Amino acid sequence: MLQDKDIPVLDDERLSEETASNARDDATGASEARTLTSQINELIEDVRVLARAETEYYRTKLSVNLAATKRVLLLFGVAVVTGIMAIIALILGLLLVLSQHVGPLAATGIIVGLTLLVASVTMGMAIKRAKKLPLDENNS
């Protein structure tokens, strides 16, 4: 567990010491009623300790999430590059097959035309969906 040495942690040893000292004070009758200012000071100190602990917790949680996000993005990048390579291999394979039937120049024209058609259709779909996005809070 990550732990900052400046942040006091209530562990079993400290808890048992406090419990033992409280029991001694109660047994001897030496415990006096704490004043309001001492209780407020203890409360402020407890809030500071809690704030430090919460800050450290969220800092650790964020660093773990950032590391996981970096791994996911790396895997996504590898998948995209591999997918592009597969599409290029498919296009080259289609080009080789078509060049035997219609000739190399016509096969190149067919493949380029089909690729541009797929690109323009997907671009049109992306633009249509982008226009529907509520980007400006004043317009919605």
UniProtKB/TrEMBL annotation:
It comes from the Bacteria. Keywords: Membrane, Transmembrane, Transmembrane helix. The chain crosses the membrane at residues 72-99, 105-127. Pfam families: Phage_holin_3_6 (PF07332). InterPro entries: Phage_holin_3_6. This is Phage holin family protein.
